[in-house]
């Protein structure tokens, strides 16, 4: 299994993206002064590739993919995932309450909510998961939820479920997140019962679950 990742300073990447967007949204009345999309894209891509090349030259090569994966999982250093655009969440009081009640870091809860629903309360996935923390109906019923679109019930139940997973996996956030997304049964079938085994068999997880774990751990740093 080999997991490659490159971390770029989010501020630098943000500036590059803003330059591209501002160029395309130039409100000048003189249309002849506005560069074409192709010109903007080419300039942006050239600048981005130059930045990536300079960064790669400064990074030591790793001959131990398992060690590399372990370090990435521990640090959440997978790339840039911007925080929710809405700023401070109106659900913060509910999240803090659930955090205190179930002993789960509030930044982890916020990251899960962000990744699952982008803080949109009435989201329903194609699989039928509902609400802020995307609870499946069976899971929600088992946790005493009567309305998955009720923010308080959803956050309470989702945090309780996350707390149970953290306890089952000795506090490993990577393990808990992999189980939250892919199911504990899948991890068991793959023979993944601890973080070392997760590192060793990470590539056996579905791509969706791999991306989910990476995304939530990175988003957690934003909260």
TrEMBL record:
Entries under SUPFAM superfamilies matching the protein: Lysozyme-like
Record-linked InterPro entries: Lysozyme-like_dom_sf, Transglycosylase_SLT_dom_1
Domain of life: Bacteria
Gene3D superfamilies cross-referenced by the UniProt entry: 1.10.530.10
Pfam (any one): SLT
Residue ranges of every copy of the Transglycosylase SLT domain listed in the record: 94-191
PANTHER family listed in its UniProt record: MEMBRANE-BOUND LYTIC MUREIN TRANSGLYCOSYLASE C, SOLUBLE LYTIC MUREIN TRANSGLYCOSYLASE-RELATED
Entry protein name: Lytic transglycosylase domain-containing protein
Species assigned in the record: Paenibacillus psychroresistens
Origin organism lineage: Bacteria, Bacillati, Bacillota, Bacilli, Bacillales
